[in-house]
Amino acid sequence: MSVSKLIGVLGFLAMTLVAIPWIIVATGRSDLYYTLTSVALLAIASGGVWLTFYIGRINIGQAAYALLGGYVSAILIVRYGVPFWFTLPLAGLLCAGASVLIGVPILRMRGVYFAMVTLVLTEVARLLALALPVTNGAKGLVNIPLPGSVTLFGIELLPDFAALDNPRRAFYFAAVVLMVVCYAGLYRLVHSRIGRLCLSLQQNEELATSIGVNVAYLRLVIYAISSFLGGIAGAMFIAISQSIYPSSFTTADSINFMLNCFLGGLAYVLGPILGTFLLYFGWDLLFKAGQFQLLIFSSVLIVLMLTLPNGLLSLRPWKQMKGAVGG
After folding, report:
1. Strands (DSSP E) along the chain, which ranges?
2. Enclosing domain of residue 113
3. pLDDT tens digits for 232-283?
4. Residue 33 CB neighbours (<10 A)
5. Is 2's pLDDT higher than 70?
6. Is residue 41 part of a domain?
7. 19-52 pLDDT, tens per residue?
């Protein structure tokens, strides 16, 4: 990693872990912890969608995996008493496994065909959550306990959230750290040998096959990683809200995950973070527009996509990072 990128990472960590909490304490706006935690988790799920764009697929079904991950975590906690921090990776892994089974047939499709099939997945997941007894139907799962403490060799690594005066602050730090780890992993993946092979899929799958690239395997691996990110984001959401319902994640969320990538920039690993932040707060800022909120919001998005097809990060004066997704 270059010195400039290292400085950028350290600056981001200082801003999110030091400056923002200090500002919140100074202003007394503790409610912002929940808002910013939500943005961080949405950015994680959007990062998974961005990764499928990296292999040339439009994924509009990420909310299905967020819902699945949330239910897996909630069921393990409520019905089997598994500590939350153990359910977090389990939720992601189960989502990854489900995506492999689903991805084998649908990843052969391209363009709008793959996109339309993934769009259906969210509604399928919602209907399953309504129908299965283990999910408690429309009543959902409520009163989910807050995460407990984690100790190692007598040292407390994570506190008992229920014993904290302000668990929202703890959730904020946990979500930001998780987001940083996820995006560091995405950055490393993109700049690895596998990332370069994935880029060849985006450009020309037939040519990639002709030079010996296992196209089907790479597609499945990337889709599984994408779904894993959706699953852990959904699991973190249920820990914060302490409940989950079939309507917790909808088709609109899947579309927003995709829009976050477009808005921030498909050409940049960090594009989904910027896109999530702007989409989340942009929608809230237009609340005063009343009945014209949706019209103004959609018009602005259309104009941005037409004028900045590579997203807002394309306004940067420096060169686009290598391995970018084409606009």
Report:
1. 150-152, 155-158
2. 3-315
3. 999 999 999 999 999 999 999 999 999 999 999 888 999 999 999 999 988 8
4. 22
5. no
6. yes
7. 988 998 888 888 889 999 999 999 999 999 999 9
Q: Taking Cα atoms as reference points, which of 149, 180, 163 lies closest to residue 86?
A: 149
Query: Do the domain assignments include residue 166?
Result: yes
Contact (CB, 8 A) for 231 and 182: no
Structural tokens at position 159: 């506190």
Is there a domain that residue 326 lies in? Answer: no
The pair of structure tokens assigned to 140 is 């959902």
The total number of structural domains that make up the chain: 1
Give the list of residues 6+ apart from residue 107 with CB closer than 8 angstroms, or none.
57, 114, 216, 219, 220, 223
Round to whole Å and give the CA distance between 310 and 313: 7
The answer to the question of residue 322 being in a domain is no
Q: Do 290 and 158 meet the contact criterion of CB atoms below 8 Å apart? A: no
Structure-token match 């923002």, residue found: 20
Q: What is the 3-state secondary structure (H, E, C) of 43-98?
A: HHHHHHHHHHHHCCCCCCCHHHHHHHHHHHHHHHHHHHCCCHHHHHHHHHHHHHHH
Residue 319 binned pLDDT confidence (cut-offs 50, 70, 90) = very low
Question: Position of tokens 């037409």?
Answer: 306
